[in-house]
Write a structure and sequence with these properties.
The structure holds 4 protein chains of 4 kinds.
Chain A lengths: L5 H21 L3 H26 L3 H31 L13
Chain C lengths: L3 H16 L5 H28 L7 E11 L2 E9 L1 H24 L5 H23 L3 H19 L6 H32 L4 H11 L7 H16 L8 H4 L5 H10 L4 H8 L1 H5 L2 H24 L3 H21 L3 H28 L17 H15 L5 H15 L3 H26 L6 H13 L10 H16 L14 H6 L21 H31 L1 H10 L1 H8 L4 H48 L7 H21 L1
Antiparallel strand pairs in C: 1-2
Chain D lengths: L2 H21 L3 H21 L3 H25 L7 H6 L7 H23 L14 H10 L2 H22 L13
The chains are: A mainly alpha, B mainly alpha, C mainly alpha, D mainly alpha.
Chain lengths: ~100, ~350, ~650, ~180
């Protein structure tokens, strides 16, 4: 097996990102959809760290912190919305929530 | 394989065995100390002064039947105790417990008495502590029993809440030591002030120490913060449905966690293996003494203080401990900045 | 070392704020006074160290930490002690300590928690004030500047349950905000222009530029800074908050609204003396505003009946003097007056506080009188303060005020000098009006007799009580200060050597520029000395004349003043209503804003334009949506799919290219 | 075991766990598998000389965010996805967005693969790397201080938002005659 280079990390990241994308469409449970989004964010993080390593700078790692904070905020608000939705409809299927207002 | 590598492997196995036996010692000590505090005898039948009692307990647990509720999630039910026990052992891996030594010339280069020397050790301890929540939560959920679920939820809420104060207390120490490595932090505390007072962080960071110890007790779910297993309310909390060896693993995890918290406290605040009278190669004796003292304190607390109420616990954690820890960190940072320590 | 000076009061604040309500009053008071006195002692040590340095290198700096370091903007949190700061910290901590001690007695009737709250605010104020005067750049100064504003607000509204007090607090805050707006703009402009916020660097680069002939950037910067100073130091047009600020406890009025905070504007101009010197247009404006304020406030002060309000207008008037000095370039004279004024004005306020305290809260001059025999300490100390402020020779106020008038005259502003002299006359009149109305003559006090009767009932032989020991100490020390403080700056004309001015001189110049010392300072030659002595004689005559007038109108012949008032009813009414400035502001600024907001912004702009636009847009959108809503399935997944489709297409396009 | 092998091992775990996350219906297992995936990513970060990010990844993602997910799953006692639909309809025959989305994901994969293999081979990583926590911290609090402050505001807003959204509606007081 070849020694991993930047491209290997990028391909790994691309695969993870695609898995996340597919997850958003395949699963019919909002929580899993949110998890898929986390996969995508992590794929992006991997890209940043790999590029930072390749360029020899700390910036890649720093951006990862910001992504993590955004992910945390997103998870908190997203899950709060999920709880609110579940209270109303007793369901977690995103296809249940198609009304534009109630 | 070099002698160094062999020594490293031996050391790792040694630490593992020592942790296992420390749990046994702790069980015995806990029962004896409790008995003394309550003016009872405590275990005295098995072995001299009942010293083989933990062994008997282990044998008894091993021969018991492994029960599992029918509605439980089989995989997670089995996984949960393993997570707990693994996390407990893993955290100790980065804790140094003695100065570098060549074992009286047996090795060519000195070996550090520590399983893995990581330069972000203090964060690793913190990370593994945060992982141990999963064992408890999963145990509570997978048992499919209301007592277990409540216990699990309480435990995780409590551990997450106190993790913040725990982390801030750690941070105030690492700000002072200017390093994330536990060995560096310990070596930073070598020597004395005025030739008498050891340069322990305990004396510069008394508030940090108190916060750390309080949060540590809450993190390990010990009395007076033992809500997850409050017998009177929840039967036994998250491990109500467990028996035999899986129960033993939770039990083991609890005691090893205590040992880890005490060991980390010793490294962070009490100067680790540094102490007078003994040569550096015997520093681990000092280390054991200090850890032992903290563990005794743990047991003493458990049998002295009544349990809080759950809301009091949460209020204390968020409204008292966390602000104190945050102010302490700020003050420490300001002090370090000003005095340029 | 320098850091300790503001840090000690801050620690006092933290202690009192955290635990004050749990400890007894003496403990809370002791913490606050201890912190202040300790700070005073540290200041003394620092100043002695400063004086020990050679005259042209008198500065001690301490960089506490790097505060901001972002791009071009690098601001260290640096404290710097130079002669100017030295004077200021001694005034703040010294007079501050005395007022703290005084307050322990004055505030004694408050509840424990309130008492601790009061002292915590007072300490916080001292900390911010010290940061203000020690800061070595605009941003650090601004921290103190805003901090003292906050404390002023908190302390004016200390009795927040009283509506007038909380209103006065808000008024002070809002009016100051207007000034601060100018100040901030000035600081920003200074940063843009000079690329730094450090005072010394600004002074150096402005000195390199040379004075501005026409109105340019530097004039604009200084003018904006001066707007800030008018807010903080109660000058036209932003002086209106200060008289109302008397709603706060009297020691607060003495400390914040007479001795220290209100002088921050004067200090700020002195601190930037080099910059201001290079903007002569602004200096002229400063001088005119200063003298106009002095005159205006002096005339209002003549007719007010609330003892503290008279003192407040007197403060405004004296601040006007200081700005006059700044405006004619006599920075040292201005700071000298600031320093002597701190003593006698604090003394006068504390004296009035003692009167109010004795009369159980009575502040109306018309209901006082004859207090001389009951309150001897208060009387004598108050009298000394009044003599000092009136400019009677050999007392401190005489030297500083005379220095200002002399320098004004010497710089050729004869008109300003005449107005200043007139104000000096007014000062003597209204000050002795207080003395005669409050302490001499028959007692007109309902309260006093009640108090006396009450005391008579409970235990015989008791009468109105004079200041308790803590208050008396502060009064006596300040009275001694009011007499003696002037001698550090004894002018050459009277055989002194003007040491104060020489000491301050390095603060107002730049090292490089100081190569030509003593340029136009007209302290050489017998001619100028003769002129100075002549002017002194004139102002002495004016002061004594003013006292005489006051004696005639308010003591010997009280009807005469009423007759005078009825002869000029219009003028009297205008003065009673303080030139209707509050009403004018209300009509010219507050009401228009309200009317524009209500009828313009709300009823037309908001309701018709904005809401109308929103409604129309909504209508249009509604119509369009009727068509477009078929796209909106409401299924999150479909949205996500379209989003990804876009990603795939755009990425595909770039790859294809 | 060299670090090369470790890369392939961790990569395989990450991909396998992520596939499993979206491949089965029990949300609890999804959460746990995602934690495993994060663990593998953390290992990759260590291989990339970023131990600090690796530890933070565990503390923040595994220790906090995933606990939150687990909490919500447990709180809602989240039902498995409705299974009758799955039994009735073959995955490839499902309604519009799902089918379309999977096709898009595949297209995206192809495109990314193409983009990454199109360029020259970049070769190995250079020698110098920034792994010191102090260096990262210094950069974070000076060069990125504005971003840092903005992020803290974001967190605050998210916190308030989460509290408001998840709060139970205050129950209306019952009328006295109607127990």
């Amino acid at each position: 097996m070849p020694t991993p280079t930047l491209v290997h990390y990028l391909i790994l990241s691309a695969v993870l990102f695609t898995i996340g994308t597919a997850g958003v469409f395949v699963r019919r449970n909002i929580i899993t959809v949110l998890l898929s989004i986390e996969i995508m964010l992590n794929a992006v993080n991997l890209t940043f760290v790999a590029f930072g390593r390749a360029l020899g700078s700390a910036d890649g790692q720093i951006i990862v912190f910001f992504v993590m904070t955004v992910a945390a905020a997103e998870a908190a608000v997203g899950l709060a919305i999920v709880i609110g939705l579940f209270r109303h409809r007793e369901s977690l299927n995103p296809d249940t929530f198609t009304t534009l207002k109630w | 394989m070099s002698a160094f590598l062999i020594a490293q492997i031996v050391l790792t196995l040694f630490v593992f065995v020592m942790l296992l036996s420390s749990a046994a010692v702790m069980v015995y000590a806990e029962r004896k100390v409790a008995a003394i505090l309550q003016q009872r005898m405590g275990p005295y039948l098995v072995g001299p002064k009942g010293m083989l009692q933990p062994l008997a307990d282990v044998i008894k647990l091993m021969f018991k039947e492994e029960l599992r509720p029918r509605a439980a999630d089989a995989f997670l039910f089995a996984l949960a105790p393993m997570i707990s026990a693994t996390a407990a052992f893993a955290a100790f891996a980065v804790v140094p417990f003695g100065a570098e030594t060549t074992f009286f010339g047996l090795l060519n280069e000195p070996l550090r008495l520590q399983v893995a020397d990581v330069n972000v050790a203090i964060l690793v301890v913190f990370a593994i502590a945060s992982m141990s929540v999963y064992g408890v939560v999963l145990a509570g959920w997978s048992s499919n029993s209301k007592y277990s679920l409540l216990g699990g939820l309480r435990a995780s809420a409590q551990m997450i809440s106190y993790e913040l104060s725990y982390g801030l207390a750690l941070a105030s120490v690492l700000v002072m030591a200017n390093s994330l490595s536990l060995s560096d932090i310990v070596n930073h505390q070598a020597g004395t002030w005025f030739g008498v007072v050891p340069r322990w962080f305990l004396f510069i960071q008394p508030v940090g120490f108190l916060v750390y110890m309080t949060a540590g007790i809450a993190e390990t779910n010990r009395a007076p913060f033992d809500f997850p297993e409050a017998e009177q309310e929840l039967v036994a909390g998250y491990h109500t449905e467990y028996s035999s060896m899986s129960f033993a693993m939770f039990f083991l995890a609890e005691y090893i966690n205590m040992v880890t918290v005490s060991a980390v406290a010793t490294d962070l605040f009490l100067g680790g293996w540094h102490g007078p009278f003994l040569p550096a190669s015997l520093g681990w004796v000092w280390f054991l003494l200090k850890v032992g003292a903290i563990l005794f304190f743990y047991i003493w607390m458990r049998w002295t203080l009544p349990r809080y109420r759950y809301d009091q616990l949460m209020r204390f954690g968020w409204k008292v401990l966390l602000p104190i820890a945050a102010v302490n960190l700020l003050a420490t940072a300001a002090g370090v900045l000003y005095f340029g320590i | 070392m320098l850091l300790l000076i503001p840090l000690l009061p801050l620690v006092g604040f933290l202690l009192n704020a955290s635990f004050g309500r749990r400890v007894s009053k003496p403990a809370a008071g002791a913490i606050a006074c201890g912190a202040m006195i300790a700070s005073f002692l540290v200041s003394l040590v620092s100043v002695f160290r400063l004086i020990a340095l050679p005259a042209d290198a008198r500065a001690i700096a301490q960089q506490v930490f790097t505060w901001i370091s972002s791009g071009d903007l690098a601001v260290p949190f640096t404290l710097r002690l130079d002669p100017l700061s030295a004077v200021m910290i001694l005034v703040v901590t010294g007079i501050g300590s005395l007022i703290h001690i005084y307050s322990t007695a004055y505030m004694h009737e408050e509840r424990d928690a309130e008492y601790a709250r009061y002292f915590s605010y007072l300490n916080l104020f001292a900390a911010f004030m010290l940061v203000l005067v020690l800061g070595s750049n605009f941003l650090v100064l601004f921290v103190g500047w805003e901090g003292v504003g906050l404390c002023s607000y908190l302390l004016i509204g200390f009795w927040y349950e009283k509506k007038s007090a909380s209103d006065a607090g808000k008024k002070a805050f809002i009016v100051n905000r207007i000034g601060d707006f100018g100040f901030i703009l000035g600081v920003l402009l200074a940063f843009v222009h000079f690329g730094t916020l450090d005072f010394q660097e600004i002074a150096r680069s402005s000195a390199a530029l040379g004075p501005e002939a026409a109105f340019g950037t530097m004039s604009l910067i200084t003018l904006l800074l001066f707007v800030g100073a008018t807010g903080k130091s109660a000058q036209i047009p932003l002086y209106v908050w200060l008289p109302d600020a008397m709603e706060g406890p009297t020691p607060v009025s003495a400390l914040i609204h007479a001795a220290t905070m209100v002088t921050a504007g004067v200090y700020m101009i002195g601190r930037n003396a080099v910059l201001f010197s290079h903007a002569p247009q602004t200096l002229t404006i400063v001088a005119i505003v200063g003298v106009a304020t002095a005159l205006l406030a002096g005339t209002i002060g003549l007719v007010q009946n609330d003892i503290k309000r008279v003192l407040a207008y007197s403060t405004v008037s004296q601040l006007g003097y200081m700005f006059l000095a700044m405006g004619v370039g006599a920075y040292a004279a201005g700071i000298f007056h600031l320093y002597t004024h701190a003593f006698f004005k604090a003394l006068l306020f504390l004296g009035s506080g003692a009167v109010i305290h004795a009369l159980a809260g009575e502040q109306d001059l018309r209901r006082m009188g004859g207090l001389k025999k009951d309150l001897p300490i208060t009387y004598w100390t108050f009298l000394i303060g009044a003599l000092a402020i009136s400019g009677v020779p050999l007392l401190s106020g005489f030297f500083s005020k005379d220095e200002i008038l002399y320098r004004t005259y010497a710089s050729g502003h004869t008109l300003l000098w005449i107005v200043g002299l007139l104000t000096s006359l007014l000062t003597a009149i209204y000050m002795f009006r207080i003395v005669f109305l409050a302490f001499h003559g028959p007692s007109r006090s309902a309260t006093a007799s009640q108090v006396a009767d009450h005391a008579h009932d409970s235990h015989h032989g008791s009468h109105l009580h004079d200041a308790p020991p803590a208050m008396a100490i502060a009064l006596v020390v300040l009275a001694v200060g009011s007499v003696a403080a002037g001698y550090v700056g004894l002018p050459q004309a009277l055989g002194g050597s003007n040491r104060f001015e020489k000491f301050l001189e390095p603060s107002f110049t730049v090292a490089e520029v100081r190569s030509t010392p003593d340029t136009p300072t007209p302290d050489d030659g017998a001619a100028t000395e003769g002129l100075e002595l002549g002017l002194m004689a004139v102002s002495t005559v004016v002061a004594v004349g003013g006292i005489g007038l006051a004696f005639f109108f308010f003591l010997a012949n009280p009807r005469a003043s009423d007759r005078l008032a009825s002869q000029f009813p219009g003028l009297h009414r205008v003065l009673m209503h303080k030139y209707y400035v509050d009403e004018i502001y209300d009509a010219a600024i507050v009401q228009p804003i309200r009317i524009v907001s209500e009828d313009g912004l709300w009823k037309i702009l908001d309701v018709r334009v904005i809401d109308g636009a929103v409604n129309d847009v909504a209508g249009t959108v509604g119509g369009a949506s009727e068509l477009l809503r078929r796209l909106q399935t409401g299924s999150v997944r479909a949205y996500a799919a379209s989003l990804f489709l876009g990603v795939v297409l755009i990425l595909g396009y770039y790859l294809w290219r | 075991m060299g670090s090369d092998t470790l890369f392939y091992l961790f990569g395989a775990i990450a991909i396998g766990a992520s596939l499993a996350v979206i491949g089965q219906r029990n949300p609890i297992y999804s959460v746990l598998l995602l934690i495993a995936s994060f663990g593998a990513l953390s290992g990759l970060y260590i291989l990339l000389d970023a131990p600090f990010v690796a530890v933070i990844q565990i503390i923040v993602y595994a220790g906090a965010i995933m606990v939150l997910f687990l909490f919500v799953v447990m709180l809602l006692n989240a039902p498995h996805e409705e299974t009758e639909y799955d039994e009735r309809v073959h995955p490839l025959l499902r309604s519009g967005p799902t089918r379309f989305g999977v096709a898009l994901a595949v297209a995206l994969m192809v495109e990314l693969w193409w983009a990454l293999t199109k360029g020259r081979e970049t070769g190995g990583f250079p020698e110098g790397s920034v792994s010191s926590v102090a260096a990262i911290g210094r950069s974070l609090f000076t060069d990125y201080s504005f971003q840092f402050e903005v992020t803290s505001v974001l967190i605050l807003v998210a916190m308030v938002g989460a509290v408001v959204l998840a709060r139970r509606e205050p129950r209306r007081p019952r009328s006295p005659g109607n127990p």
